[in-house]
């Protein structure tokens, strides 16, 4: 074991970031930026145990004889205006020209209802209908179900400030059909969660805020619409996307989501150590922490002790629990209790005539109640340009999690058979794909069960000085949430290092 690294980094202060997904890389980015802005001399290193950067972000460029396909294994897009932080980061990285908005003219989403895809009524935003006519005419919700949803305006807000499940909230306000046909496939689908366990406050706190402020979701939505109308043409022009920002609600990059990872690794000054994982963590004899790192990098096997003044764990909660077991058993215990599920995606390429695009739209959500072996289907090449060559299309299916755990157990061949059968039954796709790709994400989706935020706060309170956790297990799973948490974490790290620097003077 090379021990020479210990103590070498007394000045500048060393920040060790563990985990090279979007959370770890963007934490390093904001630590460097904020330290430079505040005049704190900092050296950052990022350790990633896998052989590639990006964590769950994985884009495959498939050069097929028919042309180039951009295949996403993990995230394929991120929110833009509602949660602007990933777009902000892309702009900081000089990726403005690479940003690619969704084709919103084709934006139609279907929900499978009794085996048939039924369009989600135009104007349903997340949960609440914002346009009444298409909602009233939609066959997705029965007349009784629609009446029940309308009762929302008469039901008083729940008293108390505790958490509840998304399932309880939606059933209480809008009824069980709204839960089954809209909230569960759409809102729980985003989190790969179970509505009957999913924390409302950790996943959709705005709904609760609206209930408290307006006494009803429908009234809140109408008030929001009126406000937006009043503001149009005045200072709400601020809501109009600024130059370089996509105007669509979601965006990615021309060559896929992994462009943001490449942008970060290109621009970071940090020492980037891919293929090198952190095996153990302990307090240093002279303050700070010692990390045992091992693995293999371009120079061969690695086995080192690294001294750090600050450590940021941007890794799954169960991995963080392992590293903190002796340093902080209390935090480790709570981290270990954060549940995860495993999910997967399969992308299939077709000649356009043979494709599922004949339905139009972005895809189909499969509610839990339909009991299908898949969770959703996306038309990747309708949603975005540049995903398939001219005359071809690319489709992506989601499986696993609590909705279809059995599909995770299937081998690739069996899974392909199941997917083809489902695509034929749901959308009439009878043709053979030109190729397919499968991505399995084991224990990849943290579950924000009810009272999740209390657990996160307990972890943050228990952590010793100089150690932070950040990323998808805590305060938001989407890429923008991860970037935002990275900014907040970097701010705390630099603030503490500034204090350390002052006391050393
Ligand atoms: C299939 C799928 C689709 C998704 N789609 C979307 C989407 O469309 N839009 C969206 O916004 N979000 C989406 N998400 C969620 C989003 O991708 C993740 O929440 C986000 O990428 C997590 O980033 P992270 O950096 O926090 O964690 P990760 O990406 O998990 O990165 C953590 C890294 O830490 C490394 N690591 C673990 N232990 C150690 C150790 N001891 N030492 C060193 N390294 C270690 C791991 O190898 C990993 O690379 C999707 C997720 C999945 C799985």
What would you note in describing this structure?
This protein is of the alpha+beta class and 505 residues long. The protein has three domains: 179 residues, 3-Layer(bba) Sandwich (FAD/NAD(P)-binding domain); 152 residues, Polyamine Oxidase, Chain A, domain 2 (Alpha-Beta Complex); 116 residues, protoporphyrinogen ix oxidase, domain 3 (Orthogonal Bundle), CATH 1.10.3110.10. Helix content is 36%, strand content 25%. The chain contains 17 helices and 22 strands. The strands form six sheets. A seven-stranded mixed β-sheet has the order 8-7-18-19-20-17-21, with helices on both faces. Strands 12-2-1-16-22 form a five-stranded parallel β-sheet, with helices on one face. A hairpin with a 2-residue loop joins strand 14 and strand 15. The longest helix has 26 residues. The N terminus is likely disordered. Flavin-adenine dinucleotide binds next to helix 1, strand 2, strand 13, strand 17 and strand 21. The site of flavin-adenine dinucleotide has 36 residues, from helix 1, strand 2, strand 13, strand 17 and strand 21.
Bound molecules: flavin-adenine dinucleotide
Task: Give the integer mean of the pLDDT values.
Answer: 92
**Percentage of helical residues?**
25-40%
CATH superfamily of the largest domain: FAD/NAD(P)-binding domain
Number of DSSP helical runs = 17
CATH topology type of the largest domain: FAD/NAD(P)-binding domain
Q: Indicate the proportion of strand residues.
A: 15-25%
Q: Given the C-alpha coordinates, what overall shape results?
A: globular
Number of extended strands? 22
Q: Show unreliable segments.
A: 1-10, 234-241
Give the name of the CATH architecture of the largest domain.
Answer: 3-Layer(bba) Sandwich
Structural domain tally:
3
**Assigned CATH class of the largest domain:** Alpha Beta
Identify the strand order in the major beta sheet.
Answer: 8-7-18-19-20-17-21
Class by SSE composition:
alpha+beta
């Amino acid at each position: 074991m090379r021990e020479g690294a210990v103590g070498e980094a007394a000045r500048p202060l060393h920040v060790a970031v563990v985990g090279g997904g979007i959370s770890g890389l963007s934490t390093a980015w904001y630590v460097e930026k904020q330290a430079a802005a505040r005049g704190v001399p900092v050296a950052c290193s990022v350790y990633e145990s896998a052989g590639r950067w990006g964590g769950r972000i994985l884009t495959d460029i498939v050069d097929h004889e028919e042309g180039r396909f951009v295949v996403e294994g993990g995230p394929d897009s991120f929110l833009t205006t509602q949660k602007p932080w990933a777009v902000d980061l892309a702009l900081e990285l000089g990726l403005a020209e690479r940003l690619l908005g969704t084709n919103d003219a084709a934006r139609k989403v279907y929900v499978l209802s009794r085996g048939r895809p039924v369009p989600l009524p135009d104007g349903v935003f997340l949960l609440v209908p914002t346009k009444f006519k298409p909602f009233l005419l939609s066959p997705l919700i029965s007349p009784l179900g629609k009446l029940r949803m309308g009762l929302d305006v008469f039901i008083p807000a729940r008293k108390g400030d505790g958490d509840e499940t998304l399932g309880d909230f939606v059933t209480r306000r809008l009824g069980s059909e709204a839960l089954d046909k809209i909230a569960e496939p759409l809102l729980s689908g985003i989190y790969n969660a179970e509505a009957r366990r999913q924390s409302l406050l950790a996943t959709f706190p705005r709904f609760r805020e609206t209930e408290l402020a307006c006494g009803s979701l429908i009234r809140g939505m109408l008030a929001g619409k009126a406000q937006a109308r009043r503001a149009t043409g005045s200072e709400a022009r601020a809501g109009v996307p600024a130059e370089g920002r996509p105007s669509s609600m979601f965006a990615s990059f021309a060559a896929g989501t992994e462009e943001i990872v490449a942008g970060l690794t290109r621009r970071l000054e940090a020492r980037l150590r891919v293929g090198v994982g952190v095996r153990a963590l302990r307090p240093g004899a002279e303050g700070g922490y010692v990390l045992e790192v091992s693995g293999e990098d371009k120079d061969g096997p690695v086995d080192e002790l690294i001294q750090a003044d600050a450590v940021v764990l941007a890794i799954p909660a169960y991995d963080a629990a392992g590293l903190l077991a002796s340093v902080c058993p209390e935090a480790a215990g709570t981290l270990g209790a954060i549940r995860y599920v495993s999910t997967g995606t399969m992308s299939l390429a077709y000649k356009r005539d043979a494709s599922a695009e004949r339905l139009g739209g972005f895809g189909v959500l499969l509610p839990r109640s339909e009991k299908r072996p898949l969770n959703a289907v996306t038309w990747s090449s309708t949603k975005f340009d540049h995903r398939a060559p001219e005359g071809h299309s690319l489709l992506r299916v989601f499986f696993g999690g609590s909705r279809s755990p059995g599909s995770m157990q299937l081998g690739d061949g069996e899974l392909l058979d199941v997917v083809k059968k489902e695509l034929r039954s749901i959308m009439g796709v009878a043709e053979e794909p030109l190729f397919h790709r499968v991505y399995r994400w084991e224990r990849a989706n943290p579950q924000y069960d009810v009272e999740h935020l209390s657990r996160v706060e307990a972890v943050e309170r228990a952590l010793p000085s100089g150690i932070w956790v950040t990323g998808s297990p805590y305060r938001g799973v989407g890429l923008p949430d991860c970037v935002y948490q990275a900014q907040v974490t970097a701010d705390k790290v630099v603030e503490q290092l500034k204090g350390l620097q002052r006391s050393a003077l």
